[in-house]
Every structure is written in structure tokens, then in C-alpha cells.
Design goal:
By secondary structure, the protein is α+β, with helices and mostly antiparallel strands. About 30% of the residues lie in helices and about 20% in strands. The structure holds zinc ion. Zinc ion (ZN) binds next to loops.
């Protein structure tokens, strides 16, 4: 709690993250990186990180924690990784190898052991992690002669945070698939018997680039003169134009009229099974 603003403080992959309501501050593992302040809205008075006093306190909390995290990292490493010898030779913390000159695969910068020891093995030029630091520039043809040394910038405004707005409120992105789902659900609302339910489930629904909807309903399952009222309401709410059409194709079961007699799928299933069974037992001699 800072003032009356609660917060959570956590460490994820060596980054320290402080999160409150509508804001968070991340301090990356790289000691050269600035804190990143993210808010849901831009310069909202209710958001405490826009107040300099609050922000300073919060940054202190974050950086105190980061000091501990960095301390833990360097205790896990060989001593020579963070304490150069007289000649500035240091040991790579992850895969060993000792040298006073190192290279960053990410920006092709030339680094000294002292720079790396001071910067927790992050490249002071580009911020790359220890995974990108090597004692030979194996990717370079001219034995690293063309590579330039990376200057460690003075920490002039190194603690000044970068602000950014991240709106993580849920946003509706209507695509064809979601529109189809809603329309089909509405068709099911309109269906009053099993035949129509099957018609709704089998309806061909297509959404074009302008988000207009075509609904093709199977004639044998959905009565031609029946308006899918709910589907039209849903489409109107979504601001969509609807084209209705009747099609005639293969239906899943014979005797579609059976489905009009009930609104229970189990009842319908029984009637349909009975009908097929009856048909099966009829003598074939009629022909
Ligand atoms: Zn680099």
C-alpha cells in the first residue's frame, strides 16, 4: 500500500513487476534498462502513477526489489563473473570461458569484461541478455576487426521511466465466425420444434466483407414462410443486413415432418428410429 493505493509486487523471469489498479511498473532484469510504466488510460487523475510523489515511492519499491533480485542472480554466478581480475578478465556466467573482451551477437558490439561485470552481463548498447554475449565473434568474417566498441552511457536519465498506455479492457472483435455463432444461436431461439432446430443447426450462414449476412435455410426443415424473428433482431443489434434464402439439399433423416411433431430430441429420435424400423420390416415385394 502506498497512500491508499494497494499494489502487488512480483518477480517474473528476473523482471520486477509492480501492479496496481489500472497501472503497472516493470523494471527489467537488465540494470541499464529504464523502468516501464504502463497505464490503462492516458493521464487519468485517478491513476496514482501520474502523481510525481506516488511515482517516486513506487519506483523506489521496485528498484529496492530489483537490487535484491540482481544480488541473488550474482550470488548464483561464479565470483569471477561480477568481479573482474586485474586485467579486466571475467568469466561468462552461463557457459564459462574467461576473457577481457566480449562480443554481443545482437548488436555486434565489442564489450569489455568490466562493462559486462557491472551490467549483470547485459549488453550496455542494446540490452541483450547474457545469452547473446560471446568471447568470440563467430558470426564475423574479419576476426571481429570491424566491430565497434559499445560505450556505456552515463546514467543521466537512466531512472526516468518510459510511459505507455496499454488498454487491456476486453474489446469486441466481431468476425464472421462469431457473427455466425450468434445468428445460429438466435435461429435456435426461433425454432419451435425439432425440425426447425435441425434446420437452424444446419443453416448455411455466410458473412461477407461488409459484414452482411446470408442465411440459407433448408426448405424441408424450416418452413419457407417462417421469419427467423430472433435472428433478424440479433442481426439488427449487430448492425448487419440480412439476406434470407431457402435451399433444398439432402436432409439428415427421412420424414422431416416427424420433427414438426415434437420439440424433444429424445422423442424425435424414438419416432425416427421407429419409422426406419417399420420401413425395414415392410415386405419388399411391392415392386
Ligand atoms: Zn548488444
Amino acid at each position: 500500500m502506498i497512500g491508499n493505493h494497494p499494489y502487488r509486487l512480483e518477480v517474473a523471469l528476473h523482471d520486477v513487476i509492480m501492479a496496481g489498479d489500472g497501472w503497472n511498473i516493470t523494471l527489467p532484469e537488465n540494470p541499464g534498462a529504464r523502468p516501464i510504466v504502463q497505464t490503462v488510460t492516458e493521464n487519468d487523475e485517478k491513476c496514482p502513477v501520474f502523481g510525481p510523489a506516488f511515482l517516486q515511492k513506487a519506483l523506489n519499491v521496485v528498484s529496492d526489489r530489483a537490487v535484491r533480485v540482481r544480488g541473488e542472480i550474482s550470488t548464483d554466478w561464479p565470483r569471477r563473473s561480477t568481479k573482474p581480475d586485474h586485467d579486466g578478465v571475467v568469466r561468462h556466467p552461463l557457459w564459462g570461458g574467461e576473457s577481457d573482451a566480449w562480443f554481443c551477437l545482437h548488436c555486434s558490439g565489442k564489450l569489455t569484461g568490466i562493462q559486462l561485470a557491472q551490467n549483470l552481463w547485459h549488453c550496455p548498447g542494446c540490452g541483450a541478455s547474457p545469452l547473446d554475449i560471446f568471447d568470440t565473434a563467430f558470426w564475423c568474417d574479419d576476426e571481429a576487426k570491424s566491430l565497434q566498441p559499445v560505450k556505456t552511457e552515463g546514467a543521466v536519465d537512466g531512472d526516468k521511466p518510459d510511459f505507455g498506455v496499454v488498454d487491456d479492457r476486453p474489446k469486441l472483435e466481431l468476425n464472421g465466425e462469431k457473427i455466425t455463432l450468434l445468428i445460429r444461436s438466435a435461429l435456435l431461439d426461433d425454432a419451435t420444434n425439432i425440425s426447425e432446430k435441425l434446420g437452424a443447426l444446419q443453416a448455411e450462414i455466410t458473412v461477407d466483407d461488409e459484414n452482411d449476412v446470408w442465411i440459407s435455410l433448408e426448405e424441408d426443415l424450416w418452413p419457407q414462410d417462417k421469419e427467423p424473428v430472433q435472428a433478424l433482431i440479433v442481426a439488427a443489434k449487430l448492425g448487419l443486413e440480412v439476406e434470407l434464402e431457402s435451399t433444398w439439399s439432402t436432409i439428415p433423416f427421412h420424414w422431416p415432418g416427424l420433427g414438426e411433431l415434437t420439440s424433444s430430441t429424445s422423442e424425435y429420435t424414438q419416432m425416427m428410429l421407429d419409422a426406419y424400423a417399420q420401413c425395414d420390416s415392410l415386405p419388399n415385394s411391392k415392386t
